[in-house]
Specification:
The protein is α/β, with parallel strands linked by helices. The chain has helices spanning 9-15, 21-32, 42-48, 53-62, 68-90, 100-121, 124-136, 147-161, 174-182, 199-210, 225-229, 246-268, 270-289; strands at residues 139-143, 166-169, 187-193, 215-219, 232-235. Strands 2-1-3-4-5 form a 5-stranded parallel β-sheet, sandwiched between helices.
Length: 290
Amino acid sequence: MKVRGEAMIVDRLKETPNLTVQEQAVVDYILEKPRALLKMSIHDLAASSYTSAATIIRLCKKIGTSGYSEFKTLYISEYPELMKLNENLKTEPFNGSSSIDDIIHALPMLVSKSMDYTRSVLDRNTIVRCLHHMRSADHIEIYGNGINYHIAQMYAHRFEEVGVHAIAYDTTHWMHVAYNKKKKKNTFAILISHTGRNPGILDTAKWLNEFSIPSLAICGKVDRRLSQLTNETLQIMTSAGILELNTLLFTQSTMYILEIFVNQMLVNNFEQVKEIAANLSNSKSRWQND
């Protein structure tokens, strides 16, 4: 049975590392012919993917299920959602004859789509582990280039609002990283990359890894290089087509994940934040009346 917040079974197939050649052949067959699996026994799948029942059972256990029966039950239960997501990803929201009304109508659906997809692939255990790091950290560092740096700045501010010290960077501050390590300051880093292969972000990840600073990558699934350098990875929605407004989808997905962290830290610090907000409101009232 799927635990709420776990990644979809298909995404677990895509993201599980260190598969054998035979296991990858099974994954490739399922991804190429998703509908065929619905009526397949383990022996049918083994024959069609030119592998064996033993290979399929090993693969099922690697992705966190007890065996083929549980895997297939989960797959069947998620299949309608999978097809809906795949169909949505193919849809171009606008064309040359689109009106302003079409745009007004389509944009909320695009945002909803990015949220739904990101939620479907979120791994709750990863979120919980990251929150554990955040609670014990002296501060959080958020790294991004281009528009991702602006997201980093926005969420450094958001974290500060809920009592968590956070800093945004568009490049690695080597002396700062080395100083914090020497002073044994607990740091947690968040690295944002659309493709997972941005040279500056990869360089940052290497240095953070070198200094044993725990980190989270928020990225698409285009490239695995960044996720191999960080402790944790959360996948966001990306799209290859410019008509899919890729920047909008990526930004909304990234902000959704960061808002989860900010709001959980707000819950953790709720009484303190509430008291400070009330005191600040009273101070503002006095200033305005002076």
